[in-house]
Design brief:
alpha+beta, six-stranded mixed β-sheet, three-stranded antiparallel β-sheet, 17 strands, 18% strand, binds glycine, binds manganese (II) ion
Length: 413
Amino acid sequence: MGRAVDTAAVATRRRALGQRIGRGTVLIPAAHQRDLERDYVQDNDLRQNNTFFYFTQLETQDAWLLMTVRGPDSVETVLFLPPRNPAQERWTGLRLGPDSVAVRLSGIATVLPTDSLERRAQRALRTTPGPVYVPLDVTTREEQRVLDLTFGARDVRNLRPIADSLRLVKDADEIARLRKAVDISVAGHIAAMQAARPGMFEYELEAALEAGFRRHGADRVGYPSIVGSGPNSTTLHYDVSRRQTQDGDLVVIDAAAEWGQYTADVTRTFPVNGRFTPRQKAIYDLVLATQQAAFDSIKVGVTSLRDLNRISREYMRAHSGTLCGPQTCDVFYIHGLGHGIGMDVHDVGDYSLPLRPGMVFTLEPGIYLTDENLGVRIEDDVLITATGAEWLSAGAPRTTADIERVMRGGRRP
Ligand code: GLY
Ligand code: MN
Ligand code: MN
């Protein structure tokens, strides 16, 4: 039925939403079980939708959350859950039902069966002026029917822009989840580096990587693992993992674990044989220095992620020398510097805003030289703090010397 809920954290989020809305009614449905035959079930049958999770931390399906906001500091919350079905629970395990267990776990005092949703929502509408906010993206046909029946001609607005803006700055609970997801991801990357041998197939490296994730408690992968060797190191989101590596290849692994609904996003590039060639090292060191230059330019309250992107390109252009032939290497840096992470790997939020404590984002410059089958990307996760910035994923070796040392460690008998 899920982990313990940080009831204070989610109550604070619901109050913050209330303050943003001022007056109105909010209704959020939970996710539904995926269908083994119809859907692509990669891990398990339910992943909560992010908006519902943000305000409840509950991993339970077919639920609804109703919040009645009568003033900035008055949010009345009701959780609706389907009644339990003992016969079905023989297949699914215990489910959360509308009873005292749910009250205790959720920290929400009023938990009712879903068949009382329409009545309660109508009552909320009669007593509460203001618009109705629903996350329009997660409404199924059945949910749409409930919304139409319940709210009719009321002023219905999309909750997502407001909920998403609240997610930009992470609270303590979210940061703890992200730290855990990052730590698990780091362990997986190290496992893959240490397993690497020339001649291995990419899928074998992927197996070592994801075994590392699961061994350390990952709930699932945060996104399909990218394990690209040789020519595939230059394809940004290569996720087929079928090629056999060859001595001399670089391998780009862009992969991360999800834990407690939050995902890391980490990339490491290493030589499959454990030794960078001088050419590989030269390109690698320029990417690394570019990443460091972006990090060193973080000024809390001043620079935005968009500014850092520009700074990183300028740095790479100015320090290319003749490394990339007649062109400067930024020509081969064909994507943005980074993005927020959180419940989505490319998390919601406005990247043009000045960085604030609690923001968590990636720094991931790269150079991709297709003519040489040589791709390098280095991606780390960074937390903005009151005094500056913290590398969250520093546990994964980042310099060529540290990578070679860790890989040698894996080769000891
Ligand atoms: N893993 C996808 C990305 O780095 O954006
Ligand atoms: Mn990324
Ligand atoms: Mn990535």
